[in-house]
Amino acid sequence: MVIKKRMLLWDYTNTNNVPRMMDQVSFSGPMSSVNNWNAWVPPELKGRAPFRPMIHLMPQLSGQDWATIENTNQPIVIYFNEPERNGISPQQAADAWHKQVLQLRTQKGKKLCSPCCAGDDAGVAWLDQFMGLVRDSPPDYLGLHYYGIDGNAAIQFIQKRHNKYPNLPVLVHEIASTARAHADVLGFTAQLANWMDGQDWIFEYGFFGCMEHVADDFVSPAAQLMNPDGSFTDLMYKLMYDQPVPYS
Fold first, then answer.
1. CB 210, CB 226: distance < 8 Å
2. Which of 1, 27, 36, 169 is the least crowded, having the fewest Cβ atoms under 10 Å away?
3. 18-37 b/e with 16+ CB inside 10 Å = b?
4. Rounded to two decimals, what is the model's pTM?
5. In what side-by-side order are the strands of the sheet with 76-79?
């Protein structure tokens, strides 16, 4: 039986540059959903898989983005992308949560994912403070990010975060190896994908990222799921079709 947990992190630039490639994505295997860090659904998805809209940062709590979130027919909304790196305090996030975001659950029946902070000490501290401030109305999912070179360390991080909030299914919104060698990236990806597939408390996970060009110098070119010409890399095909993911 196929375990469907793999979220496709489909960069918003693909919608303008290579929308045709969405037709090449198979959702009959482990791929479970799509996220583009935005409120709007990529039109090229054509309803073939669930979309996970995101309230990216504070501006998305108003205007057209908020109207799109309010009216989404998708069941899960992700709240904030690395807010601790974008000048948003836990108190600000909690205030908006109580005042505005919670109505998506109480009035619209949506499930809500916590802010997805970076997998470092600052991100952990920010999320813990936020979770304390929303103790009366916690999220439905715990959102996490993790980048690194050591698969064992990644597993320990995710497990430790789960141990802190054992009642919340985990949504690993972004994860990837930052190693530069293809063999190292594949080893990390296979180890983590296969482990996460086996944890019933992990709801979904997304390997970063499906885009034509590397986002910055931090992420690894060897971890890209798309080539500069828009075609898919070998790693993308493994995540799309292989379960378990092979180490070679």
1. yes
2. 1
3. beebbeebebeebbbbbbbb
4. 0.98
5. 54-55, 76-79, 111-113
